[in-house]
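Minutes, project check-in
Item: structure for the 138-residue chain
Input as provided by the requester:
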Amino acid sequence: MILKNTSIYLDEANLDFYEKLEFFHDNFVDKMLMCGVAENGSDLEEIPFSKTSGHPYEFYQALIFVAKRLENNFSARLISKKRLELECLFFDFSPPNFDSQVYMIQNVMDWTNKNNFSCQFWELREGLSIRLIKKFWR
């Protein structure tokens, strides 16, 4: 199922979704920036994230601040048995007329039980655009 800015994969398409996700990580993801586990419904700013090195603390805080306040540019979601199983939210934080810098938040539901999820921030390879991401997930 395709909505304007969301691709939705339902039960029988889960293998296709996971194959695409693996290919996407192998070919378009640069590195993980941070990850954390929290109870369902937790506010993004309340998730206890583990951060990778390479950026100052303020970078991670700004990333969370902006991601919380902006609507994602595109998302890909896997729904299994009428429950969200996994979602990838894509944000382009590039200023106009500059190279694209897209980030992905990947939320994996039921991480250790049905009451929590894993939230991961990924930096995508430089130059990858939302247009190409939409084309990939369609």
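Outcome recorded: The chain has a mean pLDDT of 92.
No further action items on this chain.
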